[in-house]
Each structure stands twice: as C-alpha cells, then as structure tokens.
Design goal:
With 228 residues, this protein is an all-alpha fold. Helices cover 77% and strands 0% of the residues. Residues 23-24, 27-28, 43-44, 62-63, 66-67, 70, 103-104, 107, 110-111, 114-116, 120, 124, 127-128, 131, 160-161, 163-164 line the site of protoporphyrin IX containing FE.
Length: 228
C-alpha cells in the first residue's frame, strides 16, 4: 500500500514539475520574439501595446520574475535535490524567493490594468500580495530554524506560482464550454490560484495528521512534497 502511495505521489509531483517548467518556458515565448506593438492579438499583447513604455517594462519584469520562480520551484520542492545538494537548495532558494518577490510586485502593478477589469484587479491583486507574503514568511521561518514552517510556507507559495499554469490550462478547458475568451478568462483571476491553495492546505493538513514531519533529507518517499 505504501509503495502504491509513493508511486502516486511521485507521478503527481512529476506532473506538477513538468507542467510548471513547460509553462514557464512557453508563456513568455511570444513576447520575446517581437515587440508588443507587432504582436497583434496574440496573448494579451494588444491590450498592453496601447499602454505607456513603463507598463511594458513592468510586464516583461513580471514574466521574467514569475517565470523564473515557476521554473525553479519544482527543484526547490524536490526532497532528492535538497538531500543530495543542500547548497544548491540554499542558493536556488534565494534566487527563487527574489524572483517571486519581483514577479509578484510587478504582478501587483499589472493587476489594476487587467483585461478582466475589477475582477482581475481583485483576484490577481490578492494573488500578487500573497505571492510576496508567503516566501517572506517562509524565509523568516527558516531564519529562526523552523524548517517545518518554512516548508509549509514554500508549499503554499508554489500553489500560488502554479497559477501561471492553471490560468492557461483553465482558459483552454473552459473555452469550448463557455464559448468566449472573455467569459472563460473571467473565472481565472481567482480560479487560477484559490483551488491550488485549498489543495495545498489539504495536503499539509493530511501530513500533520499523519505524524511529525520527516527530518530534512528523508522525504524522498513523498516525491518531494513531504520534505523538510
Ligand atoms: C504570482 C503569481 C502571478 C500574478 C499575481 C500574476 C499577475 C499577472 C497579471 C495581473 C497579468 C496581466 C493579465 C491581465 O491583463 O489580465 C499577467 C500577465 C502575464 N503573466 Fe502573470 N501572474 C502570476 C504568475 C505568472 C507566472 C508563473 C507566469 C509564467 C511565466 C506568468 C506570465 C505572465 C505572462 C506571459 C503574462 C502576459 C499575458 C499572457 O500572455 O498571458 N505570470 N500576470
């Protein structure tokens, strides 16, 4: 039974890691090829092309920051990486945290201009604030030596940054059902991260009920999520 659970967790973590890396690379790609003004309607480009240059700079800063955080997060959550290369975990941890802060702060500036209007301002705005707050709380926890709290805050932070994946998958899944991009997109300012955070909280609660946290480096069996 334990082997089945372990295999399931490994597959789950592998899937999260794969989709995170894929979207981190794929989402900014169209914006790197040509200037915003020449992108036509692809992505949300035409909406942002009409904005002043400082907004373009914020958008690119956001893509680089949040994209990098999404790219590096799976390695940070992997217990295998942490056990074998603790120095890599520490160095990449700082890079990931700074990337989340930069991407989140830029996201907070973009939220009030969202194509989803007030709904976008509220949903993406709250996401941005939390995605800055959680890594800070995780960093403060590890500074005071509380590795368990550190890991919990970083799992929650990953649930937030995974919004980058859920936003795109969500629109893709909803579009054939609701018929219009605007209607599908309207679900996403909250729908891209609230479910992720609920699932993360559920996983953390289950762990808490299952017993004391696994010591650092011993959590490989959990496929990386249950790891100090
Ligand atoms: C911390 C979580 C995040 C927040 C708060 C956030 C916020 C935002 C906001 C407000 C916009 C403008 C969208 C609109 O006008 O409706 C945006 C666009 C964008 N974001 Fe994020 N975002 C986050 C995570 C990510 C991640 C992980 C990526 C991955 C690369 C990403 C890549 C992009 C891209 C490429 C755009 C341009 C629009 C598009 O083509 O989809 N964001 N983001």
């Amino acid at each position: 039974m334990a082997t089945v659970l372990t295999a399931r967790r490994r597959i789950g973590f592998g899937w999260l890691a794969l989709t995170a890396v894929a979207i981190a690379v794929y989402a900014p790609l169209p914006y790197l090829g040509s200037p915003l003004s020449e992108m036509g309607d692809s992505g949300l480009a035409s909406h942002y092309a009409a904005k002043p240059p400082w907004v373009h700079a914020v958008l690119y800063t956001h893509m680089v920051g949040s994209g990098l955080a999404l790219l590096l997060s799976p390695a940070q959550l992997s217990a295998g990486v942490r056990r074998r290369w603790p120095v890599v975990h520490r160095v990449l941890g700082r890079v990931t945290a700074v990337a989340m802060l930069v991407g989140g702060a830029a996201g907070a500036v973009l939220a009030p201009m969202s194509i989803a209007g007030l709904n976008g301002a509220a949903g993406f705005g709250l996401l941005a604030v939390l995605s800055v707050a959680f890594p800070v709380l995780g960093f403060l926890a590890v500074r005071r030596g509380d590795v368990t709290a550190h890991r919990r805050w970083m799992v929650r932070a990953f649930a937030l940054i995974y919004a980058g994946v859920m936003l795109r998958v969500g629109v893709l899944v909803l579009l054939p059902v609701v018929g219009e991009f605007e209607t599908a997109y309207a679900f996403m300012p909250f729908g891209s991260w609230v479910p992720n955070l609920l699932v993360a909280e559920w996983v953390l609660r289950r762990e808490r009920r299952a017993g004391p946290p696994v010591p650092a480096g011993a959590g490989v069996a959990a496929g990386g999520v249950r790891s100090g």
